[in-house]
Structure formats: structure tokens, C-alpha cells
Amino acid sequence: MLDDGNTISMRIAIFCLIALLATPAASTAEHKHGTDPVCCRFKASRRPSWSTTLRMPVPDLYDNCDWFPDHARIIFPAPTVVIAALHQDCFLKNGAVPPVPVHTLDTLVALNAQTANVTKQLTWKDVALEARGGGSINLLNLKDGNFLFHAGLTLRLCDSNLNELRSRTLQSINWRNEQWLPLVSADGKSILLKHWNTDKDSERWSEEHWISPETLQDIRSFRTALYSWESLISGNQVFYNLARRGSVSPSEDLVYVRQIGDREGHPFCSACTGVALAATSTGTVIVAATTAELWLVDPSGNVILRKKLGGLGDNIEHVEATQKGSLFAFSFGHSRDFIVTRGFDTFVLFDSDAKQQRFRFKTTTYPYDEGEGWQRLDTPSFALSPAANQIVLLDGYVLKSFLLSP
Question: Distance (Å, rounded) from C-alpha 327 to C-alpha 335?
Fold first, then answer.
């Protein structure tokens, strides 16, 4: 499943928090990792239509900290435009454990989807610093070709040319123990801004802010019962799991649903266990369960398809639906041992009306050195074009485009 903001990553060797202090050496205009010029290496079972490596800005040398590349996101706000977002943290050399970032760097890159040419790039330093864990980034498609960029305590509404249309600073009383998470409906017309505290030693609370996609200001806000951060919105409904206790796997939880404004909800359907990851523009809810099992459920809670895609240890990582029609894409990862030399993932284009896949290909990713003997293995992020005829994968700073044909 998607991890909390953002990407699925694995550390190889003895896994402990000190790994975050690893040093990715930076020189020239790109970060360098081990013997590879940039992260990351991956290959696919299909030939890409193009491949490119993003050139990242050089952080200030006087920061006196080690820069660590972290979350990456990618979207298709328009048929000919791809937007990539990258987040980096900087930790003090020989700092405390667990580490707290002393600087952050967030970058947006706009590319031509046909040629891979970079048309514009923007970078902000320390906008995500006052956020729990350095903050995660979120990149979400809205209506009319606009998109929402969330970094730390900042929301930005931008058009596909990276022009900022609106912005909003989120307010937190104790930002180290609070989190914000934006959710957007499949048609890009509704935005839910979730806000909750994570301090187990104080009273737990959760609130929702339904905000305007034109102004980013609240339309209505209210307190709700606690629920899991994995959730989605479709129409006037919120789909979610109850707040977890103990060792219950998220894929074993019932999916709940409630109307906007209701504090509590009810089970979506009696057999729907897993995590609701996305919904199509026609209202079909996409639920992921263990062994990469895909559920399609209609808005009334009737299961219309159950399809097992993998085996033990396999998980559906990410789902993205087009703003119109019944097509959606998803990826699922295959079992990985503790000592990992490579990762395997499958990307699928699926038609919820026809209940069958349209296209599929596989990728193999390789770990890269972060320094000090530590390695990292990521699952590539991806974006699906509005017409569902192109998919772009992002692994580290490497982008590859694939044309989707029958």
C-alpha cells in the first residue's frame, strides 16, 4: 500500500534510523549516488517512448548537513504536460537519532509529455521544514488542467505552466504532532483537507476541511471520528478504514463510508476488506486487499469484480483513474526478501466497465548507494495521461514514458 506520504522504499543492510544520516554526495548540477551518476536504474518489459534524467538544483554548500532525496510524485495535468515533484531533506552531520531535518528542498518540474523537454522548474527551500518528519509532498490533479501541490504547511494551486494561481498556509498549533493530507475526487472538482494529531499522550482528534478548488479556502470544516489516513473521496462520500489498533493489517480492515458532514459512517459492504485507494469518475470504488487482490465495488456497495493478481507479500501500491470514463491504472509490487538485489513491479491499465485489463508491463528496479554502505530501493511513481494512452514512470530522478496500445 502507499506509505504515509508519499514513496515505498527499502533500506538494505541492518535497518535502523541512523540510515537516514547517510550522505548522498552532491557535485555539479546533479546528486550522485555511489557509482551511479544519479538514482535510479530501472528497466521495463516494454520499450519506452522516451527516457530522461532530471537535473536537480545544487543545495547550498554552507548548510553543513547531508542532503537525502525522499518523496517523489508525478501527474499529467494536461495531455501534453507532465509535472514531477521532488522532496529532499537535509540532516545534521552526526546529528541526533531519530534525525530531524534542518533544511528541506522542494522542486516542481514541468516537461513536454511528447519530447521530455523541461519547460520550467521551480524550487522552494524550507517550505516543508515546519511539518512532521520534514513533511511529505502531494501532487494532485484538479479540474481545467490545474493541480494542487502540497509541501509541509503550504498549499499551492498552479496551472499546467507552473504559474501559481492561489496559495494557502496551513495552521498547526503543534506541527511536530499534527499532519495534513489533501484528497481530490476523480473528477478534480472536490478537495478534502484532512487534519489530525498524532500525539498518543494527548487527546486525539481529527477534523476535515472541504476547500474550494478555485480559492483553496474552507467551504466547511468540522470534527470527525478518528480514521486511517488511507482514504478517498467520491461525490459526496468519504471512504476510509477505522483507526487501527494493535497489529491488524490494513488489508484486513472493513471499508467504511459516510456522507460529507457526518461524524461517523457504516461499512461500505459486508465483505469489503482492504483499503479504498481510488474511485473512477463513474463512481466505481477500487479496493486493494492482500496478495494484490483487486476489488471493484459500485457506489451502492455491490461487489462487481474480485480479481487476485499476486501472491503472498504482493501489494497494490498506487491507483490512478482518469477524470473521465472507466479507465484506471495501478501498480503492484512483488515479494521482496530482506536482502534485496532488485525489485519487481507490474503496471496495469484496467477498464472497470469491461472488467478487464487493456495493457500491462513489468519493471525491474535496482538499489542505489546512499553512502556509508546504505542502499535504497524504491517503487517507481507513475502518472496516467488524461486519454489513458501514455504512462510516465518516475524513479528517483529518472523518468520513462510508455505508450499504451492494445
Answer: 27
Sequence letter at residue 306 = R
For residue range 94-138, list pLDDT tens digits in order.
Answer: 766 767 788 888 999 999 999 999 999 999 998 887 765 445 789
For 371-387, give one letter per residue: b (16+ CB within 10 A) or e: beebbbbbbbbbbbbbe
Where does the pLDDT of residue 247 fall: very low under 50, low under 70, confident under 90, or very high at 90 and above?
A: very low
H or E, element range at 85: strand 81-92
What the block records as the C-alpha cell of 73 is 510524485
CB 31 within 8 A of CB 391: no
Are 390 and 82 in contact by the 8 Å Cβ rule? The answer is no
Query: Position 275: which residue type?
Result: V
Contact 229, 4 (CB under 8 A): yes
End-to-end CA distance of the chain: 28
Q: What is the mean pLDDT of the chain?
A: 81
Quote the CA–CA distance of 147 and 98 in Å, as a whole number: 34
Name the one residue in this structure whose C-alpha cell is 486519454.
387
With contact defined as beta carbons under 8 Å apart, do 93 and 103 qualify? no
CA distances from 48 to 2, 38, 45, 148, 378 (A): 25, 19, 9, 28, 19
Q: How many C-beta atoms lie closer than 10 Å to residue 341's C-beta?
A: 11
